[in-house]
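Budget justification, computational time. The allocation requested in the original proposal was used primarily to generate structure tokens for proteins on the priority list. As evidence of use, we reproduce two of the resulting records. The first is shown immediately below.
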Amino acid sequence: MKKLTTLAAATLMLGTSSLAYAETKIGVLMDITGPIANFIPPLQNAANLAVKHVNDQGGLLGEEVVAVYGDTTGTAQGAVDAAQKLVNIENVPIVMGSLMSGTTIAAAEAAIIPAGVAQISPTATSPAMTELQDDGLVFRIVPSDNYQGEILAKMVLEEGLDKVALTYVNNDYGVGIGQTFKEAYKKAGGEIVAENKHEEKKDSYRSELASLAKGDAQALVVIAYAGDSGGKIVRQSIEGGLFDRFVGTDGLRDELLIQNVGADALKTSFFSSPTSPAENPAQKTLHDAFNAEYGEGADKAFVDQTYDATFLALLAIEKAGSTDRAKMAEALRQVAMAPGEKVGPGDWAKAVALIKEGKDIDYDGASGTAEFDENGDVGGYIGKFVVDGDGYKQIAIIE
């Protein structure tokens, strides 16, 4: 079976998929450009590593598998356009992605669900996904922001912060966590002394910050992306002497933030983010393989989830025994959930052998187990992170 050349792999990274030898495809929808672009390179590596593991161990349905990339550009319309190409032109049987909640939902509603294609996101956390009219086609392997918002409220109070200001971006992601955090924090006795729901892509947030700083807040809670409004709000807060302590979620836990404002300015700040279970041997297996392949980067945010979601999508195709879209959602549940013989990252040949023997498999990944409920949601783990040099260090995990 022909191996992917360096040129072919680079071509895939650019989204071109017409490789003559390829007979089996998987759609990979990512926000390659836009507000979370800084997150993307290690996540592309994670998806590519899952594909490599399959191709190195016999391929998918006996054929070379090709990852066909679509770039959402970090916008709803970009997501729709990229998803329509994947499902209507590339005819992929299943889509891994997208990453941002807004792009995931837009792609699902306008293109992926109407085409009858199963979709699994590694990172989209908006509570709105739970209520999607998706015919059972949309899955994710991170917990809903309903959960992260509650845990964040607990973290803030445990830090002795009982008076905070809150700003969150006006999109599916920001509103989801922001509203849940606010309700949980106030219910537990915290006081939000000032609040603002802000818009993306503005050059200045100084007027909003001036209003937020009028109270006696001990910290500013920022729920937004570091590559867009979140990073600007933190930087302009520091420049204006308005706030010097920040609390953020996964969108702000971006090394771009450290590069832009400096580690010293963030030494009292902390961040919540979906994470992996502690002492998970599957995570070590993946991280060793990842770093052996790419030299570094296994510890970057959402590498575990992206690899797992890609590997699960590939397992679903193998389990279905074809690229029949109608079989993907059921097959995805079958390979992800108990009961079944355990397989983990890189265990492709083992999984294929078990499937051929008619045995059930249960994939336990680097990010944990994926026991889907009726809405395609999972439980999971939220980590607490602090700045450590030019990166982030996890100091606690809450299941």
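The second record produced under the same allocation is shown here.
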Amino acid sequence: MTDAAALRLIARDAYTFGYAMIENYRTLYEQAVDAQDPRFTGGFGSYRHYSEPFTPANTDIVTPNNDTPYSWGWFDLRAEPWVITVPAIDRFYILPFHDLYTVYAGYVSAATTGTGPGRYLLAGPSWTGGTPEEFDGVITASTDFVGCLGRTAFTDGDVDELRRIQHSYSAVPLSQHLGAPTPAAEPLSWPTWDEAAATDIRFYDYLDYLLQFAPALEEDRDIRDRMASVGLDGRGAFRTSDLDDNQRAAFEQGLADGIAHLDDVASHASNSTGLFGTREEMAGAYDNRNVGAKKGLYGLPPAIAWYGGWLVDSAGNHITGATDYTITFTADQLPKARFFWSATLYTIPQRLLSANEIDRYSIGDRTPGVHYGEDGSLTLHVQHGRPADPLEAANWLPAPEGPFTVIIRAYGGDTAIAEGTYRLPAITPR
């Protein structure tokens, strides 16, 4: 080990490097490892589809998307690639494959690969086989394990059609696709997830375990070398319980420094521009990917799905159900999206959907009965009680009694949205 000051700095930078990985591991463990967890998806290599919109009872993920029900999947790429197949699909959908860093290896989607049928190879970092015949492309991940939070647009309340589309997503090992013998991967002993460990120095034990499945990338060489110099070398053998008192104090101080740094960076982020993307887009952008993981784990890049929203009002005060608010879009301010846009309300600090008397959790350009002004403007009424005016009630987004936030999403946004120049109107107290 090195001196205390240097060790503290490395611990701080290791937290910054690894924060998103640990946030990802929480979900991976619950969904793909712990068969007793109600969120278990069936293990690696299978999808679990949610064929109805989310409600306040769903707590699998913070800031759940209420427009495009999810299809969860996790894949072990150590022994061989997987074959991902989709049919022709007549609506917005996306199967985005993220690595252990939460960075996207690639997408199969209406926005990127189109609405026609396709077959794709999902491969890990050790794959050297190129693109087999009759495949439309290869998605190569930088880590041995990837996750997929698929989305499929829910239209006209047709649950049966939604379910049919979701179950048309196929994932099989390459060996099965080729009719060849199935190679075996070494069994793993995953460390049990402990929620408290995400904010104490056991964080580093998890990080070292995960690094063994993440070969060092060139853009990460400096931090990976410095981490290795203090034992975080990806062998999975690092234990903070083996540290002496001075080393432990340095790691604890570095952890606190890292947490404070992330909190500060996150406090200045007002939309999703730069927070999500592929390796080419996110190389070295540790702060950005951490803010994305903290504020909206598994969010999508703006060209596919843009995220913005409101946490404070026009006066700079945190928004709460004790006050009635309006959000007024001029005709020119309305989000211009190829597919659709919506605004969803979440409780704070839970960031879950808020129960209300009309079961409306989001509002947008697909909401029946929404009233526009004669000039094409749209005013949303965000408040706890139902508005007395029928036209205001048509545009009502119900709020809880306590604090909340509103997140807006635009799918397939125009250039202004994709490039980050689009600006939302303020949320204003009445």
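A brief technical remark on that second record: The chain has two domains: 1-296, 302-429.
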